[in-house]
Amino acid sequence: MKEEVVVIEGTSKAAMHGGAINKGYSIMDLIFRVVAIIGTLGSAISMGTTNETLPFFTQFIRFKAQYDDLPTFTFFVVANSVVCAYLVLSIPVSIVHIINSRARISRLILIFFDAAMMALLTAGASAAAAIVYLAHKGNARANWFAICQQFNSFCERTSGSLIGSFASMVVFILLILLSASALARR
Amino acid sequence: MKEEVVVIEGTSKAAMHGGAINKGYSIMDLIFRVVAIIGTLGSAISMGTTNETLPFFTQFIRFKAQYDDLPTFTFFVVANSVVCAYLVLSIPVSIVHIINSRARISRLILIFFDAAMMALLTAGASAAAAIVYLAHKGNARANWFAICQQFNSFCERTSGSLIGSFASMVVFILLILLSASALARR
Question: Where are the transmembrane segments (chains A, B) (predicted)?
């Protein structure tokens, strides 16, 4: 009779220990989500507000560069905004996981959407990076000129706005790993 | 005494049932990996062997387009090759999971690397897609011309080679979901 009680106590202690670790995972999950929100929001805003008007102009043309001159940059802004909105919506779920650390289905759903959103964010960021690279270096074989020689601050701004996106991408990998660890430990 | 036996039998049946489902997940995991290997290998080969020489030439210039004229396409080939090699290396782990469906640490490691490789593959595919789009449409504001008007078969080949990559990307999302489900059911 006494042995049984000990066993049950041991099990419940182990379960409580596992629960505490899972709660820690969930809190880190929440923090990472906030970091990713800041990263994607910053990227979207800094790319979306990029424009440059050159100080010289001819009678007919004013030399002006704006982010939506290049469709890829528009996609970048849209992708970052969508991912940012998703992250804001996922925060309540993350808080529920802190309270109820044994949740299973909601974690699975979150892993699926995290993976899909990571793909979207990576697609936007690397497509924009390919265009930024082209703007800096140009391509002699395709006769594409490096526009950064004229639009200097435009190029710096667009290059800089990639950072938040790529950082958020890494955070997403960690988010997926955290959710998977919590599921494994449950 | 009899009740106890029934309870134990019930538990072991449930465990066996869970094990069978996990084995099913692991077999699907293996199949998906093979599909992704075919997709990435096909993409890498079809992009890597792309070149076109135009039938007309001047005294000094032969018009020739090759995939490595554009650094982004080189990155695409490298990314697809790396992901393909990773997938081949992950096949033994996947087979181990079919035999031992209760594995935990190895599944976690696999989820982490799957997520990282998905990011790499998506980056390569969407960067190449951005350049392919530019080659098809050009960009009037940046004075980049659509080279597809001259290099027709080159453009078709590069566009086509994106398909395998994007399909593998979707397969990776499913792979992550499968591993997470197996962890949750363990």
Answer: 30-50, 70-96, 108-135, 162-184
